[in-house]
Structures are given as C-alpha cells and as structure tokens.
Amino acid sequence: QVQLVESGGGLVQAGGSLRLSCAASGSIFVFNAMGWYRQAPGKQRELVASITSGGNTNYADSVKGRFTISRDTANSTVNLRMNSLKPEDTAVYYCNADHLFGVRYWGQGTQVTVSS
C-alpha cells in the first residue's frame, strides 16, 4: 500500500515562502506523475503543479513564476517551493501520485495559511 505524507505547511505572511514536501512510502519510479493540488474552503480541489516521471512540469496559471515543483528520487519525495505567497494561496494542499497501474493516491493534506 502506497502512502504519501505531506509536511511543511503553516502560517506565513503575504510575500513569504514555504516549502512543502511529500514523502512516498516506496520508490517514486512507480509513478507516472506526481503533483500538488489544493482546496480552499467552499471551492473545488484544483491542480497546483505536477511533474512527470520524465521531469516535465505543469503549473496552474495562478502560480506560474512563483511555485516550483521538483523531485528527489533518492529520497522518494516531491517538493513544492512556494514564493511570493498571496492570501488567495490559502488552502489545504494535497500531494497526489498516479501509479503505473492506474491507481491514484492522495496524501492527508497540509494546511497553508497566508495572512495579509
């Protein structure tokens, strides 16, 4: 059973930075892609950023130029560096992974709160 464990959320002032990490219980080579989603109160979960096994990245327009997703295959982690944070970035952030066999896994979520 794959487990994804997020860390790094917290409270930060607008303009600040945070780094989220997602640690997988096994090798991340079994995933076609991994990514970060977020869900704000009263809103649908939305894709923030994703990275494929080949290293291709994709970002939501709202975070382009501010967020950077990366993989650390040696430590089976996917990281999200978030700079120039805005109050509208406040949400629960979820790590996800799409397994080669077609199963999608989710982490438990980590809260990010950006104060104005």
The major pleated sheet works out as: 7 strands, mixed
Shape: globular
Residue share in β-strands: over 45%
SS content category: mainly beta
Low-confidence stretches: none
Number of strands: 11
**SSE arrangement, N to C:** EEEEEEEEEEE
The Rg value, from CA coordinates, equals 13 Å
Give the helix level as a range of percent.
under 10%
| Overall pLDDT level | 95
**Through-space gap between termini:** 40 Å
Comma- or semicolon-separated keywords:
116 residues, mainly beta, seven-stranded mixed sheet, four-stranded antiparallel sheet, 11 strands, 0% helix, globular
Task: Write up this protein.
With 116 residues, the protein is mostly beta strands. The chain is 0% helix and 55% strand. It has strands spanning 4-7, 10-13, 18-24, 31-39, 46-52, 57-59, 67-72, 77-82, 91-99, 104-106, 110-115. The strands form 2 sheets. Strands 2, 4, 5, 6, 9, 10 and 11 form a 7-stranded mixed beta sheet that branches. The N and C termini lie far apart (40 Å).
How do the strands and helices of this protein lay out in sequence?
Layout: E1 4-7, E2 10-13, E3 18-24, E4 31-39, E5 46-52, E6 57-59, E7 67-72, E8 77-82, E9 91-99, E10 104-106, E11 110-115
Parallel strand pairs: 2-11
Antiparallel strand pairs: 1-3, 3-8, 4-5, 4-9, 5-6, 7-8, 9-10, 9-11
Short structural description:
The protein is an all-beta fold and 116 residues long. It has strands at 4-7, 10-13, 18-24, 31-39, 46-52, 57-59, 67-72, 77-82, 91-99, 104-106, 110-115.
